[in-house]
Amino acid sequence: MGPKIINWGILGPGGIAKTFTKDLLVDPKTRGVTHLQHSVAAVASSSNLARAEEFLKDVGAPASAKAYGSYQELVSDTAVEIVYVATPHSHHFEHVLLCLKAGKNVLCEKPITVNAEQAKILVKSAREKNLFLMEGVWTRYLPISAYVREIIASNRLGPIQRVLADTSIATSPETSFADGTHRLVNLDLAGGSLLDLGIYSLSWIFDVLYTGERPETRKAPEIQSFLKLYHTGSDESATVLLNFPRSAEQGGDAHAIAFSGIRAGSDPDGKGGAGPALRVFGEKGEIQLFAPLYRPTRSHLVLSDGTVEDKKWPQPGPGIGSGWYNGFAGVTGAEGEGHGMFWEADEVGDALVNDRKEGRLEGLDETVLILEVMDTARKQAGLVYPDRVESVEYPVGPK
Ligand SMILES: NC(=O)C1=CN([C@@H]2O[C@H](COP(=O)(O)OP(=O)(O)OC[C@H]3O[C@@H](n4cnc5c(N)ncnc54)[C@H](OP(=O)(O)O)[C@@H]3O)[C@@H](O)[C@H]2O)C=CC1
Ligand SMILES: O=C1OC[C@@H](O)[C@H](O)[C@H]1O
Fold this sequence. Notes:
D-xylose 1-dehydrogenase (NADP(+), D-xylono-1,5-lactone-forming); 11 helices; D-xylose 1-dehydrogenase (NADP+) activity; binds NADPH dihydro-nicotinamide-adenine-dinucleotide phosphate
C-alpha cells in the first residue's frame, strides 16, 4: 500500500498560511517520512476569490486544488479532510467551530482561542463529533524539541530546577504598526505579545516541566505576571513567573519565567550573539536554545562534568527558507531549507492515519491549561479584549 494522501483545506490565505502550505508541498521523504503525503485540496478567502486563486499560484498547488471566496464553501468541500485555520486569534473560535460543525478535522494556528472558555467549547465539540483537533504550536514537533526532551528524560541535566524562556522580536511598533491595525497590536484581533509570542515561551516551559511528567504527578503552576501595555491597549511585553509544584523525587518545586515582547528582541544581532533564549537549568547542567524560540536552529549543552555539545538543526528541504517573514525581526532561513512547519503537519497526518484525535506532544487538556495561564496573566494586568473577541456565543456577532 502506498502512502496515505492527506487532503488539506486552507482557511485564510494570509502570511503564515503561505509558509505552511509551501512546507506541506515539500516531499516528506526528505525528512524520512514515508507513510503519508500532503496535498492541498482547496483554499478559501473570507470574501475574495481572486486572493484564493493567487494563493494557489504562489504556493505551487496542484492543478486539482480549488479556490473559494467563502469559508463556508471550503468546509462544504467533501475532498477536504482536514482544515488548517490561519486567521487572526480573534476569529479562531468562530472559524474552528465552523469547521467542526461541518464535520472537518482541524489544525488551528496558535493560540487556538483567545481564552480558555472558548477552547473548552471547541474541545467538547471535537470530542463529541470524534474529530481531530490540535493547536498549531508547531515548535513542539521540531527535531530540536525532541532532542531537548531526550536530554531531560535521560537525566543528563539531573532534576530540573528552573527554566527561562524569551520569545521577543525587536521592532518599533510606532513605525512598523503605526496605524494600530496590525494583528500584533490590535485589540479587535486579540493582539499583543503574550498571545502571539508568549505562548511559545509558555509552551517550552510546559514541555520541560509538565508534559513529560506522569499524569498523576502533573500539577498546574501558580503564576504571577506583569504586562506592559502599548497605547492601543494590547501588551507590548509580558513577563509570567511560574511555580510548578513538584515532588522531592522530581527535585522539588521548579520555577520558570516566560518573557515575550515586541520592542526589545531576544536576538538583537539576528545571529545569537546575545546568548540563549531558552535556558533549562538542572542540578548537573544546562541545555540552551537560541532565538527565535518558535523556530530554534541551534542548541548548546553544558554539563558540570565538562561536557559541552553545540549542535545546529537545519530544516530539510528543498523549501523556501523562512517564507513570508524572511528577514523580519532578525529571522533568516537558508534558501533551499524548509521552514519546519511540515513536522506538525506530519503529526496531524499520522493522527489521521492512526485514528488519533489529538497531538501527542500537547494534548487538548494541556492546550486549555496554557490558555488558563494566559487568562490569569491578562486578568492580573487588567487586559480584556472586546466582548466580541472574548465571546463564547456562536455564531459570533458582527464587530
Ligand atoms: N506558526 C507561526 O510561526 C506563525 C503563526 N501565526 C499565526 O497565524 C495566524 C494568522 O497570522 P498571519 O498569517 O500573520 O495573519 P495575516 O493577517 O497575514 O492573515 C490572516 C488571514 O486571515 C483572514 N482573515 C479573516 N478574517 C480576518 C479579519 N477580520 N482580519 C484580518 N484577517 C482576516 C484573511 O484572509 P481572508 O479574509 O482573505 O480570508 C487574512 O489573510 C495567527 O493566529 C498568528 O498567531 C502567524 C505568524 C507565524
Ligand atoms: O507565531 C509567530 O511566530 C513568528 C512571529 O513573527 C509571529 O508574529 C508569530 O505569530
